[in-house]
Amino acid sequence: MSEAILEVRDLVKEFSVRGGGKVHAVSGVSFDLHEGETLGLVGESGCGKSTTARCVLRLIEPTSGEVVFRGRDVLKLGRKELRKLRADLQIVFQDPYASLNPRMQVWSIVAEPLIVHGMATKEARARANELLELVRLRPEHANRYPHEFSSGQRQRIGVARALALEPDVLVLDEPVSALDVSIQAGVLNLLEELRGRLNLAYLFIAHDLSVVRHISDRVAVMYLGKVVEIGTRDDIYNHPAMPYTQALLSSVPVPDPPVERKRKRIVLQGDLPSPADPPSGCRFRTRCWKAQDICAEEEPALIDRGQGHPAACHFAEELQVVP
Amino acid sequence: MTTVLDIKDLEVTFPTLEGRVQAVRGVNLTLEPGRIRGVVGESGSGKTVTMLAALGLLPSTAEVTGSVRYKGRELLGLPPSELRKVRGSGIAMIFQDPRTSLNPVHTIGHQIVEGIRIHHPEVHRKEALKRAVELLALVGIPQPDKRARDYPHQFSGGMCQRVMVAMAVANDPDVLVADEPTTALDVTIQAQILDLLRDIRREKGVAIVIISHDLGVVAGLADEVSVMYAGRVVERGTVDDVYAQARHPYTRGLLSSVPRLTDTHRAPLTSIGGGAPSLLALPKGCAFHPRCSHERPNCRVDDPRLRRVGPVEAACHYAEEMGPVGAVQ
Questions:
Q1: pLDDT tens-digit map of B115-132
Q2: Is B259 exposed, middle or buried (0-12, 13-18, 19+ CB in 10 A)?
Q3: What is d(CA A266, CA B31) in angstroms, rounded to the nearest whole number?
Q4: Strands A169-173 and A201-206, how do they pair?
Q5: Contact call for residues B291 and B229 (beta carbons, < 8 A)
Q6: Is A181 on the interface with B (CB under 8 A)?
Q7: Cα separation of B66 and B26, whole Å?
Q8: I need a surface site. Which of A181, B147, B306, B327 has the fewest CB within 10 A?
Q9: Chain-chain contact of A207 with B261 (C-beta, under 8 angstroms)
Q10: Is B213:A180 a contact under the CB 8 Å cutoff?
């Protein structure tokens, strides 16, 4: 495997809440992202996946931990150095409506990062046209405003802007979840193609496990601020060992009626506990059918217990759940 | 079999400053007792507007024509007071976002009691509350007698949706319309709600219309499915037939553009080119022709009607030529 371009170690983010107390949004997350690969980060709302992404880019300041990009600790950089680093580390947001300034023409949205990083306007404008072509938009439309584009096209504009500074790593925060399926397919294909052509590494954050399986080389599953299982796509989808991963995968409906009717599902009881007051020991134990006393007392480490990849469960055991 | 809900030639138009928006263009949809019909399609395809029009829930500016019969009785043109009697007791609806559907200043119990007593004013408040607690238990809310005294903000999204289901079945309706009931929920919670809908159908024999953009949700829940595009049903049949032997290029495109949990290869997805047409200026002929890979000259002129092709019904001139699904392009 190629070397790690981005290393995240023990990342913690706590938000203080009114009246005292803390929300433990991210509680010691570690993972590596290798050159040219896609790491899928999946989990349900409130698991901390977006907060993790934002901490990696320092769009919000993490409470503690390390984010090492090409050997440099991102969290220790000053403002100027951080800006330079952001040329190599870019983000695409979920909502293609909210993330583009409605009063800017498309060329200037795409050219803005270039101008911020010192390129002359004329040159930046020419480069913006190339970028629009790269994401399959017509450069003739460069003078249009965001509202003149469909949601899929807007997401392409967001991708073009993120690629303007020729980054090595793209953080994609739910990039296709606001799109209709027929449009989503086109954006996923484009991302896949660009990754190959530009040798990009993606940190792909999504709640849709089918999309993640399609696009990822490796997958990390998050639950209540922690990575509970990590491995190759095949490890996670065909040999899940952590009960939460198993329940999550078995809940995803498949568009195949006979398969779907026959399928045995693990339906979890109850709701996600509050991240302001996470359960002791294993955070999943309150909804887990395997929970024993030890689960409340001792937090299971994220290690390989004989399944070939790390899973955070005292009773890790492989189970086939994907039909 | 008798039809509990029969929508015929439904058309809905919204006059706007920019012109007339043709949201629904001649939709036919039937529902048999105790059956579940899925209505799938992308944003703007008219699936929600169809059901809102059927229940008389659209703003008065909407022009609605056609026929909507509930157990043989025409609903379109019914005075509001009569329609209110049908809604809630005969046909109930649950919406996508359970939080905005509940009143934040009243307790959950109060809101269910209100729903019961509007249709049955003779029921005493205390008795209605007892029934509300039973309903909360039915939809799987732990400690229902205690929870009935709580307010919506004290419930999670999944629990709120359970409350909505409890409220919807409070007066034993024959029809439940569920509009994207799990779209706002996480996948593990979605599984709980889908299970609940299956239980409700089995125990109460209620017929369900489930509106969804998620082909997987409909696959596991529905008996029949109608696929909508640009205000029209373009394909329908049993879920098994439509998913395995779709004849309309749009349905086929939709089925092959979704990444599947079961995919082991990483081949590019088949996307449908272009975007949904503007409802202000629909393409002539078949509304799907600008995006269709099988498009021929007459598709730009003749608007295809829904007709039987093999086991399904499809609105495409060339439906017979379509091979097995998955072999597209």
A1: 999 999 999 999 999 999
A2: buried
A3: 31
A4: parallel
A5: no
A6: yes
A7: 8
A8: B327
A9: no
A10: yes
**Residue linked to tokens 């294909």:** A189
What whole-number distance in Å separates Cα of residue B322 and Cα of residue B283? Answer: 23
Query: To which residue do tokens 């949601």 refer?
Result: A151
Q: What pLDDT was estimated at residue B328?
A: 41
Do B247 and B322 contact (CB within 8 A), yes or no?
yes
Q: Which two tokens stand for residue A319?
A: 């189970």
| Longest pairwise C-alpha distance within chain A | 67
pTM of the model: 0.90
Tokens 């059901």: give the residue: B51
- Å between B82 CA and nearest CA of chain A: 38
* Distance, CA of B181 to CA of B191 (rounded, Å): 11
| HSE-CB for B193 with a 13 A CA cutoff | 33
Structure-token match 């005969």, residue found: B90
Look up residue A69 and give its two tokens.
């990009």
Task: Give the separation between CA B100 and CA B115, rounded to whole angstroms.
Answer: 17
Which pLDDT tens digit goes with each residue over B261-293?
988 777 888 888 888 888 999 999 999 999 998
Nearest to A181 among B220, B258, B268 (CB): B258
Kindly provide the ipTM of the predicted complex, given to two decimals: 0.87
Q: Which residue type sits at B8?
A: K
Radius of gyration of chain B (CA): 21
Nearest-CB residue to A256 (from B42, B243, B275): B243
Helix (H) / strand (E) element for B239: namely helix B239-245
Tokens encoding B38: 């899925």
Q: What is the mean pLDDT of residues B136-155?
A: 93
Handedness of CA A35, A38, A40, A41 (dihedral sign): positive
